[in-house]
Design brief:
This protein has 256 residues and is mainly alpha-helical. The protein has 9 helices and 2 strands. The protein has one domain. A two-stranded antiparallel ribbon has the order 1-2. α1 runs antiparallel to α2 and α7 runs antiparallel to α8.
């Protein structure tokens, strides 16, 4: 499940970056008054196209991290497992709702990027406030996923140095939480819809960074063998080590 979630998250991430590249070609990152009029409408249209992929990539990446932590914790920390999955269900539901609201705020939806006579749209601040909530919730979950390893890493039978190193890898979600917090501070500009090409650039940059760091955190279990292979010329394992998560303090991490 963790592998499938990671693959899906990576696919969504690549699609998001590809669509952002299209936006850059039309002028994303430049002030709107420097962009030709025909490109301005294209920027607005592609902005709404890319949003669902970027939004849905967030819960998928975090689910991968939760699956990793769940396997590392084993049958212990039952309360933490319930807490994580309840919050992931709520966060996923909120992200799906945010994707729907992005298009449902105007009737017909094409009124978001072009002039449609008789179109009815919600106040832009509605979508901006929902985006702010999503960014804040995402930041909260990132920091939570980074702090939870403290509850079981210190119980492992290994030296303090190894515990610190392991926790550092598992706690990289702090960086993802910082990205989400910065994105939350900038998401208020979504309600103005003025100089969109300039305002959205940093928002997409921080969002892509958050998704990338979520993927890295979920892949942390593979870093030790890769490090040994690159730095110590040790051969990579031919197949996954069984019960790696339950023996994290006795096998691969013992050779640090």
């Amino acid at each position: 499940m963790c592998m499938l979630s990671l693959i899906f998250s990576q696919v969504m991430y690549i699609i998001t970056l590809s669509l952002c590249t299209v936006l850059v070609c039309y002028g994303l990152g430049r002030h709107i008054y420097y962009i030709p009029v025909d490109h301005q409408s294209e920027i607005t249209r592609w902005n709404w196209i890319v949003q669902p992929f970027g939004i849905l990539a967030l819960p998928i990446g975090k689910i991968s991290v939760v699956l990793l932590l769940e396997r590392l914790m084993g049958n212990t920390c039952v309360r933490w497992r319930w807490f994580l999955w309840m919050n992931m269900a709520l966060f996923t539901a909120s992200m799906i709702s945010s994707s729907i609201i992005s298009y449902a705020q105007c009737n017909p939806p094409r009124a978001l990027w072009s002039q449609v006579p008789g179109a009815v749209c919600l106040d832009p601040t509605v979508n901006a406030n929902f985006a702010l909530f999503g960014c804040a919730y995402s930041s909260f979950l990132d920091f939570t996923l980074a702090i939870i390893p403290i509850t079981f890493v210190w119980k492992l039978r290994m030296s303090t140095q190894k515990k610190v190193g392991l926790y550092f890898l598992l706690g990289m979600g702090v960086l993802s939480g910082v990205c989400a917090a910065i994105k939350a501070a900038q998401s208020t500009e979504l309600g103005t819809r003025q100089d969109v090409s300039w305002a959205l650039f940093s928002l997409y940059a921080w969002s892509a960074s958050e998704i990338f760091l979520n993927i890295v955190c979920a892949c942390v279990a593979t870093l030790k063998p890769l490090y040994d292979h690159l730095m110590k010329s040790k051969p990579l394992p031919r197949r996954a080590q069984h019960t790696y998560e339950s023996r994290i303090g006795t096998d691969r991490w013992e050779s640090v």
